[in-house]
Amino acid sequence: MEPFRIGVPQSTVDDLRERLARTRWPEPEPVGDWSQGVPLRRLRRLCRYWADGYNWPATERRLNAIPQFRTDVDGLAIHFLHVRSTDPAATPVILTHGWPGSFLEFERALALLAADGGFHVVVPSLPGYAFSGKPAATGWGIHRIARAWCELMARLGYDRFVAAGSDWGTSISTSIALQHPERLLGLHLVPPLVAPDGDDPTEAERAALRDLDERARYGSGYSAMHGTRPQTVGYALLDSPAGLAAWIGEKLWTWTDPAGGLTDDQVLDNLTLYWVTGTAASSARLYWESIDEVAGWFSTGAGDTIAVPTGAAVFPAEVPRPSRRWAERRFTDIVHWGEPDRGGHFGAWEQPELFVADLRATVRALRRRRSVSRSW
Question: Global pTM?
Answer without folding.
Answer: 0.97
